[in-house]
Amino acid sequence: MKYHTTALFLGILLLVPGLGYSENEDFTRQLNFGGYISTYLYKNNVDSGSPLAFSLSSDPSFVVSKLDTFVESKFAPNWRFFGEIEFVYTPYGYSTSTTPGSQTSSRDATNFVFQNPLTTKTQQNNGLIIQRAFVDYTVNDLLSFRVGQYLTPFGIWNEDHGDPILTSITLPYSVSTVTYAQAMAGAQTFGKWFASEAVSLSYNAYIGNGDGTQPFGANPGGTFSGGGRVQADLFDALTLNASYYYGDLSYGQAGSGKFTVTSAVNRSTYGGGLKFSLANFVLQVEEIFDDPHVVTGPTVVAPGTGTAPPNGTQSLFYAQAEYTIWDIFTPYARYERVQTTSFTGNIGAGGVNIHILPQVVFKTDGSFVNFETSTNKLQDFTRVSAGLTVLF
Predict the structure, then answer these.
(1) pLDDT score of 94
(2) Which of 13, 163, 176, 183 could form a disulfide with 38 if both were Cys (CB 3.0 to 4.6 A apart)?
(3) What is the domain range of residue 164?
(4) Residue 277 to residue 274: CA distance in whole angstroms
């Protein structure tokens, strides 16, 4: 089914250049293409006795972290199509998929899902991933509608999606771990109210079928999800937002050609954040609370993988500061405090971006993870990374 969807999407891309709109002589159709590539060298420093040594190699490794292409078409008045596809051709990192009764390794290269070691997003080997594919219809500033697959409007970071606009190579734990569906297929309404030239309020409300377990491994979901976000932008300097997400998730085991649910989870995730900008300085702070609640029920066939989390609220906090010098150098530093049902820890990260051109950025990045408590006896580890992101 995923190959049929991919073929349909590529067919749309091929047909779009030949389409026109002649009913409104004042309308000029717009078509834009673009994309980016990110390639990095990274090295983990993990104690050989740590449980993490199984999934985090200490050998240095190159990785093409991202190769994405975009297409945008404003094909009629008030209508807009946007698509993003990611090319995946090489497995890397630790396989998150299993065949019935066996565990795959990162060297298996056929029809398995693999995990990007830098973004920790799950990805299907040998294919294309539809990151986004949606159609917008705008009534006015206050009201727009969106249908298709979209990035979930939650918090600050999730929709700041592409590597060229992200300062760090390593993402915050609150972004890389699964606490909400980072993308979903569904419907959304959104709008913005301009109270004055300096103050605006915006909102998003959505429903979809994102289950959050493998948001880009296939068409996300199969279970109901919904939520919303409200945001205030003040004086071109301060952004405040609050977000809420609800989703039904399923966990269990694969076997006999189907997925059998062993536990179902109702997940409520909520949080707030701020982004403050003054001249060349940017401060970003966000805290997310995740409250999974395991619900027992009959065994059914449904999507989802892994082990259901235990009941209990998880708290994920980060604060990041950066400063741009001469429009070329952007050093940054980030602190995270993570409290989950399985471990409590502190994460520090920092690095420098060098803007060789507006479209070419060289990045260096280092992070340190300290586990205060861990039910799995996890041990501290560090990671260093460097590489290039090119927007084309």
Answers:
(1) 36
(2) 163
(3) 2-391
(4) 10
